[in-house]
Amino acid sequence: MPEYNPERNYIDLEEEILEAFILAKDSSTIQLPEGHFLFSQSLSLDGKKHLTIKGMGMDKTVLSFKGQEQGAEGIKISNSQNIILEDFSIEDAVGDNLKISDTDTLTINRIRSAWTGKASTENGAYGIYPVLSTHILIQDCEAIGASDAGIYVGQSQHVIIRDNKAFFNVAGIESENSSHVEIYNNDSYQNTSGLLIFNLPGLTVYGNNIKAYNNKVYDNNLKNFGVKGSIVSAVPKGTGVIIMATKDVDFYQNFISNHKTTNLAVVSYEIFAADQDPEAKVFIDANESNGIRTIDSDFQKDQAYDPYPGRVYVHDNSFKNEHYLPTFSNDFGKLWFFKNKAIIPDIVYDGILPMGTKLSDPDVKVCIRNNGDASFAFLDAANEFEYFSNDLKPFNCIIK
Amino acid sequence: MIEENIRIIRLIFILPLCIFLFQCNPGQKNIPKAKKGVLAKPLIIKNTTENKFLSQYGFFKGELADLKPSKDVFPYNLNTPLFSNYAYKKRFIYLPEGVQMSYKEDDVFSFENGAVLIKNFYYPGDFRMENGTKKIIETRLLIKENNIWKPLNYIWSEDQQDAKLNYVGEKINASWIHTDGTKKSIIYNVPNNNQCKNCHLKGKDISPIGPTVAQLNRKYAMLSEKMSQLEFYKEKNILKNLPEHKNFPKFAVWNNEESGSLEDRAKAYLDINCAHCHQPKGSAKNSGLDLRLSQINLRKQGIFKPPIAAGKGSGDLQYSIVPGSPNESIIIYRMNSNDPGVMMPEVGRSIVHHEGVNLITEYIKNLKVDASR
């Protein structure tokens, strides 16, 4: 596994910095000095307004939680407004390096979130993790070594993720159950998967309306080191981009290359659920043991949740692949051997549709055009690959 | 093959060397060393107006450490308390003259401005002699001011003369003779001010946790042998809106089998230890787990509920609670852990509450999923 090993000389200013976080007044700035500061506990902010926390640069000011004894997060911000974090690094928290929840108007500038040493399951889950928040800008950041997602925006609205780098994570960048998200000018490489646009069931907030453009997503073939049971642990290595169960996705002018499973997949939640997701097993267990109605109804009767992608427009992207043989480490790779002449497709669409709809229905439509000579596989996964096809013609449409 | 051999050769050479030289334990965490730094200038301007010492409030008369309540300070006790490293607690409510608290049917009682909840954490030197010598560690206050609750924390001096305001928390050595006669010694973490909020946050506001009707519905010898706390407060005219009927809900006492069934006691324990965060308005709402006693949806209670964002906290297990199988239940795994990335609750304890784990283990072992529910 790849490693990130910066040189560190730790300084203890725990009490002073912790006190500044706790007692900081609204409308003020905490200017952190240069140095590698070591903490035994989380730094948290709650209910603050118009607060800026600034370092001297991501290489100069490092907040390290290596050997942390208390709390799970490195920095945790909640119930706040107009928060700016910039110019420092956060390292080695037991759980998430930077978690922000229930916050409105948040800017994260030039922050590096990293787990040092080898990419490992022991690393914390999320690098930069705003959740249940609104008006979020994440720019010029770096995310390294997360055992879940490097940059992960969950259950949030109005989000811009731009000019960031993510590498050595299970998922480089992930937008989960979020709406009105723009993801552009990012580099995501050497992760298990580069970019995930997901919508998961059982949560209070669902996502749609995502634009992703001008991203470079390449070489994401890292062995999956996610914790078993987590959603990302079910992501096959060597997938550049996965768009799952999300409506209104405009994916264009991206550069996607060198993935051993596929460069881009558009799938429904069912293809995940069928195989690895515990939810599906609850299902089976429930039915086998006389039905626990409260449980099995959750996923399918969840009125607010739609497990199928729709109005997904993949156009004007550039796809390349230096890998000739698909990986044999997952079912998709194997499928290419048996069904696709051992060719790794650039774009995959599972074709699983809601009952009673057809591919061309406006709400479930997937349009794929102007992607150079990108290769394609339509799986027809709902019918045991009966109409598996490489024909892009039925998908040559426009979504406005 | 070659790679494998190299790995084995490395292990053969490095392991004994490592054990010999550093007594290293691969399971133990490496905490790097840090030298104390000095700030060129303070990070923030401090201008707080809080009382620096606990004695300034006048909550107690006589020797402060005797914790004898002054006028307008009323003791209270809960049926099932939060586990805090086996610390004993003495709780009081301060209500300025003429100020009352009001009954709420299914929530924490409401308090007017000026009310203060006072919670003292202490260790008797010997748990078998609860009224013998004791060491008070800290006193936590929740002060109702301008319609919001403000948490403040005071740490007692070694000589037990007074307690001093603290924002950043502290590690304190605590030791005692346990109920079984063994000597226990732990590092007790006094929470920092934000950690207080972590548990006391409900929605966007801070709220007390303990004083609900079901928790207060009991007798407390410090008040009266004859009547319940509720009746006592009503008689003292400090509790208003208490309905005339007597059918108030009552939490089981977690470690008293006569007080309720295994399920009642387990759910009361989970409610007070977990549900301040694991509920729809708590700070762990994004987990989807709701451990309030009032929750009837099995999945929300954790039964066959997969983790949402637990990361390695799931311990490679699939569900919070698997009826009949405590060993496959994430909840037991996390209650049994002291690893900060795994342990639950994540603040407030540094050691495992074995008796609590046993209770929840028994509960899960005996749990049958009732299809009719």
Q: What does this 3D model show about the protein?
A:
- The complex is a heterodimer of chains A (400) and B (373).
- Chain A has 5 helices and 33 strands.
- Chain A is mostly beta strands.
- Chain A has 2 domains: 20-227, Pectate Lyase C-like (3 Solenoid), CATH 2.160.20.10; 236-268 and 307-400, no CATH class.
- In chain A, helix 3 crosses helix 4 (293-300).
- Chain B has 373 residues and is of the alpha+beta class.
- Chain B folds into 2 domains: 54-240, no CATH class; 257-365, no CATH class.
- Chain B has 7 helices and 18 strands.
- Chain B has helices spanning 2-22, 193-200, 213-216, 229-235, 262-274, 330-335, 354-365, and strands spanning 35-36, 60-61, 68-69, 73-76, 88-94, 101-102, 110-111, 116-124, 134-145, 148-156, 163-166, 170-177, 183-190, 201-202, 205-206, 219-220, 224-228, 239-240.
- Chain B has a 6-stranded antiparallel beta sheet with strand order 4-5-8-9-10-11, with helices on one face. In chain B, strands 7-6-18 form a 3-stranded mixed beta sheet.
- In chain B, strand 2 (60-61) and strand 3 (68-69) form a beta hairpin.
- The radius of gyration of chain B is 23 Å and the shape is globular.
- Strand 2 (10-12) of chain A pairs parallel with strand 1 (35-36) of chain B, so a sheet runs across the interface.
Quick summary:
Chain A has 400 residues and is mainly beta.
Kindly list the characteristics that best describe this protein.
heterodimer, A: 400 residues, mainly beta, Pectate Lyase C-like, 2 domains, 20-stranded parallel sheet, eleven-stranded parallel sheet, 5 helices, 11% helix, globular, B: 373 residues, alpha+beta, six-stranded antiparallel sheet, three-stranded mixed sheet, 7 helices, 18 strands, 19% helix, 23% strand
